[in-house]
Specification:
This protein is mainly α. The chain contains 24 helices and 10 strands. The chain has 2 domains: about 1-45 and about 130-325, Growth Hormone, Chain: A (Up-down Bundle), CATH 1.20.1250.20; about 340-540, MFS general substrate transporter like domains (Growth Hormone, Chain: A, Up-down Bundle), CATH 1.20.1250.20. The strands form 5 sheets. The chain has a two-stranded antiparallel sheet with strand order 1-8. A two-stranded antiparallel ribbon has the order 2-3. Strands 4-7 form a two-stranded antiparallel ribbon. Strand 2 (about 70) and strand 3 form a beta hairpin.
Length: about 575
């Protein structure tokens, strides 16, 4: 197991087999990318005001005046109250004219009524919703506004909790029963429940089905990432994990705003969201199981058969013995003891790495989805804003790929995250007066957060050993779902100060930078296969410490203690 990558060098890094795996796995990533922004468009809350029934027999002047105008920086009609309809009806019948301001002049033939003196009531007859962007959403159909507004972020929370649960369950199943069944099981969950939510008759039913939809969303992406990282080696693995998969994921995300623009009904949109998953069914016969995982489970013959088939596809000759029996026996012996989620906290070294990665994934996900939810508060066309917000992911992932090829993981992540944090913090100086500059800073912040996110995926996969890699990745994704679960509530902070959500997002990005300082470097190092082979965590690592000195200290650390501290001197 220790020499797995050397054992498969005969395959090369970019033959027909690797190309097929690369493109097929990228295609299996489309369903999860296409569904991720569903929480934005299905739960969109259009502008609304109290409905004035047609049978009220009000003059047009009084229909317009029935909704109070709130002045808080910019005048806008009240969303949750109206003047008492019976009183307004009587005044309209008397021929009175509404007086919006005390100094407003009205015709002498009409008695004037000062609107601020009238009593107000709630929206007893429901609401009228703007159809500028949406014909119907979950919010408009089930009236999740005003006194029921608390259900909006709760529904988003339930969706992300579904993702959290899916990460936990899929990670354990994948490390125990294989990558391939979990991958296509996640895709099936996405398609089945995307269709099911379209027929939800009430908000409680929708929420339950939305939770089930969340189960497959991030689990699908994680398994694709792990499968590609284990089948591909060398430069092709970096190309897949840092550029290929993220690019296809981002492109599929860009498709949903365009679809939502064309299909304005949330039920029809939900049905369309099931299509990419159904289209992936034939790919079952093109995606193999991970030979690295098979070997880690002691299934030597299956792993060799798969690699010999790959050698035929690449038109290269496989050695008579790919894995030497002593190595295979040792790998099988190691795996006789089944690993579990608790093994991520078993030793001091893996515990330090795991806890830091959990917090980094939490902060990055909260920043990512907080940006998405906060976009609704910005000026401009909603669909165009979200298209730009997803389109900026393409150059972000390209930048993360370039960084993954040439620069250390820690330096790359810290640089990108710091760029995103500073851009988000600068928004507080531009938001009120410079909408175009604010939008540019938001996109720059998203670029930094996403490029850092792309690096941290690769970084986490390289830090995690094969025997528990999917569980480790899924546990990190669980904490990212915790971060995404709190992100809808970041928007609620705007009730106190409109800049508060953006400041919080910047601080969260800075938190990720701070934590990354204390992780070991994995640049150009072989993937660990066992927990004992994991790089040693360091309390602080200086950029000017030589690689030779670091390797010597790491060798001493593995012999003596699970964690060491390097003191920098100039």
């Amino acid at each position: 197991m220790q020499d797995y990558e050397e054992s498969v060098l005969f395959l090369g890094t970019w033959g027909p087999f690797q190309k097929r795996i690369f493109f097929v796995l990228c295609l299996t990533c489309v369903p999860c990318g296409y569904n991720i922004l569903s929480v934005i468009f299905l739960l969109a809350s259009p502008p609304h005001h109290c409905d004035i029934p047609a049978h009220s027999n009000l003059s047009q002047e009084w229909i317009q005046a029935s909704i109070p105008v709130e002045v808080a920086g910019q005048p806008e009609r009240s969303s949750c109250s109206r003047y008492e309809l019976d009183l307004v009806r009587n005044l309209s019948a008397m021929g009175a004219s509404p007086n919006w301001l005390q100094n407003q002049s009205v015709p002498e033939s009409k008695p004037e009524v000062l609107l601020s003196n009238l009593k107000q009531e709630g929206c007893r007859d429901g609401w009228t919703y703007s159809e500028e962007y949406f014909q119907s959403t979950v919010v408009t159909e089930f009236d999740l506004v005003c006194s029921e507004q608390w259900k909006q972020p709760l529904t988003s929370l339930v969706y992300f909790l579904g993702g959290l649960s899916g990460c936990f369950i899929s990670g354990l199943i994948s490390d125990r029963f294989g990558r391939k069944p979990v991958l296509f099981g996640s895709i099936a969950v996405l398609s089945i429940f995307s269709s099911a939510v379209a027929f939800a008759p009430s908000w409680p039913v929708f929420t339950v089905l939305f939770f089930m939809l969340g189960l497959g969303q991030i689990a699908c992406y994680i398994v694709v990432f792990v499968l590609g990282s284990e089948i591909l080696v060398g430069s092709s693995r970096i190309l897949f994990s840092s550029l290929g998969q993220p690019f296809v994921y981002a492109f599929s995300m860009m498709l949903l705003p365009g679809t939502a623009y064309l299909v304005r009904s949330w039920r029809h949109l939900s049905l369309i969201m099931a299509v990419p998953g159904l289209a992936c069914i034939p790919l079952w016969w093109l995606v193999p199981e991970s030979p690295r995982w098979l070997l880690s489970r002691g299934r030597l013959q299956e792993a060799e058969l798969l690699l010999r088939s790959a050698a035929l596809e690449n038109q290269v000759e496989a050695p008579p013995v790919i894995f030497l029996p002593p190595k295979a026996e040792k790998a099988a012996t190691r795996q006789a003891e089944s690993v579990s989620f608790l093994d991520l906290l078993k030793t001091a070294n893996i515990r330090h790495i795991t806890l830091k990665l959990w917090l980094i994934w939490f902060s990055m996900s909260a920043s990512y989805f907080g940006l998405s939810f906060s976009m609704s508060t910005l000026y401009g066309n909603l669909f165009l804003n979200y298209f730009l917000l997803t389109a900026v992911e393409l150059p972000a992932y390209f930048a993360s790929w370039l960084a993954a090829r040439s620069f250390p993981r820690r330096l790359s992540f810290m640089g990108f995250s710091l760029l995103g944090a500073l851009a988000l913090l600068f928004i507080q100086g531009t938001m009120k007066s410079y909408p175009t500059l604010t939008m540019s800073l938001v996109l720059l912040g998203k670029f930094g957060v996403l490029a850092g996110n792309g690096v941290v995926y690769t970084y986490t996969g390289e830090l995690s050993p094969t025997v528990i890699r999917n569980t480790a990745m899924s546990s990190c994704a669980m904490f990212s779902r915790v971060g995404s679960s709190v992100s809808p509530y970041l928007l609620e902070m705007a009730e106190f100060n409109k800049l508060l959500p953006w400041i919080t997002l910047g601080v969260l990005s800075l938190l990720g930078v701070l934590l990354c300082i204390f992780l070991p470097e994995t640049f150009r190092q072989p993937l660990p296969d066992t927990i004992e082979q994991m790089p040693v965590t360091r309390w602080f690592t200086c950029p000017w410490v030589s690689k030779t000195a670091m390797k010597e200290e790491e060798k001493i650390a593995k012999e003596q203690t699970p964690s060491i501290e390097i003191i920098c001197t100039t």
